[in-house]
Design goal:
elongated, 9 strands, four-stranded mixed β-sheet, alpha+beta
């Protein structure tokens, strides 16, 4: 099938493919045609259905078809694709990512443009995810600054040890987060966040960028 070959060329193996991705690849085709094509590929085991509207091309292994990593699906649906950034992790998952905790969360919290509710829990494969709408549009340019502010919302900077402070400052350096960037988005967070940033020890590091 020509459609399968094009999809395989675009996405490869073990990568999440949304039904909307396939629809965008064939703008001249109707939705019923898209649905029928997807069903045919699933029936012929060219595509596997991960969940409603999410598919992937499996590899053949000694143990059968490969399984799709739920983390890839979470990233694709709520955080970023190859072009755009539209979300970021928050909560304990963010603190773990930044090296501010060693705790591994059972539920991953995600702030995203792709959610209209104040917050709800969804299942992505065997992973529980709490998705929240963002108070401002998330882009590739502001994502790092917003994540920094999320981290400051979650932890008292005065409680950080030497290694944790180093990790947070390294994140600022690695992402070139400036005081101007952070100041621009402080208003989207509780008042105490701006007080922690602008009146705390991080202001010197941010001013150096």
């Amino acid at each position: 099938m020509i459609a399968y070959n094009l999809i395989k060329e675009s996405f490869g193996y073990d990568e999440p493919i949304l039904a909307s991705d396939i629809e965008a690849m064939f703008p001249e085709r109707s939705r019923p045609w898209i649905d029928k094509a997807i069903k045919t590929m699933v029936d012929e085991n060219q595509l596997k259905r991960f969940s409603t509207g999410v598919y992937y091309i499996p590899r053949k292994t000694l143990f059968g078809d490969s399984l799709l990593n739920p983390q890839k699906v979470i990233a694709k649906k709520y955080i970023k694709n190859g072009i755009e950034t539209y979300g970021y992790v928050s909560g304990t998952a963010l603190l773990n990512l930044l090296g501010l905790t060693t705790q591994v969360p059972n539920v991953i919290t995600v702030v995203t443009n792709n959610e209209s509710s104040r917050g709800r829990k969804v299942a992505v494969g065997n992973q529980s995810v709490y998705v929240m709408k963002s108070t401002t549009e998330i882009t590739k340019e502001n994502c790092a600054a917003l994540q920094l502010l999320e981290a400051v919302k979650l932890v008292d900077l005065n409680d950080l040890d030497e290694i944790e402070r180093y990790n947070l400052e390294k994140y600022i350096d690695d992402n070139n987060i400036t005081l101007t960037m952070v100041s621009k988005y402080c208003s989207f967070f509780p008042d105490y966040v701006s007080k922690r940033v602008l009146g705390g020890s991080l202001i010197g590091k941010l001013a150096q960028q």
